[in-house]
Write a sequence for this structure.
């Protein structure tokens, strides 16, 4: 099953949350027009190394099970393009999304 929901950030902007229920796991992501944050399934190394030419803006939080947890969790890893926007590891998902607008 898949769920897509609007999420309003503190600054009033709306982003899109996506949950995909899979056997024994759930993929969780929140996206803007520029980039996204995602659960531990995101391979930031792949984005930075093999897909660098795509200049993907993304961050990864681990140990999250809901969209709310993803928004509040500190980012464990980020892409180089996210860092160029001022996003850093340890920043909450919600703060990173504000910088992706």
């Amino acid at each position: 099953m898949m769920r897509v929901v609007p999420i309003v950030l503190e600054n009033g902007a709306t982003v899109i949350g996506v949950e995909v229920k899979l056997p024994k796991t759930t993929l969780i992501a929140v996206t803007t027009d520029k980039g996204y944050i995602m659960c531990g399934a995101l391979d930031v190394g792949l984005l930075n190394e093999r897909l660098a030419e795509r200049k993907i803006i993304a961050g990864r939080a681990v140990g999250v099970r809901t969209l709310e947890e993803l928004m509040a969790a500190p980012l464990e890893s980020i892409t180089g393009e996210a860092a160029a926007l001022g996003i850093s590891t340890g920043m909450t998902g919600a703060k990173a999304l504000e910088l992706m607008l």
User: Anything to note?
Assistant: The chain has four helices and six strands. Residues 77 and 93 are 11 Å apart (CA to CA). The radius of gyration is 13 Å. The longest strand covers residues 14-22.
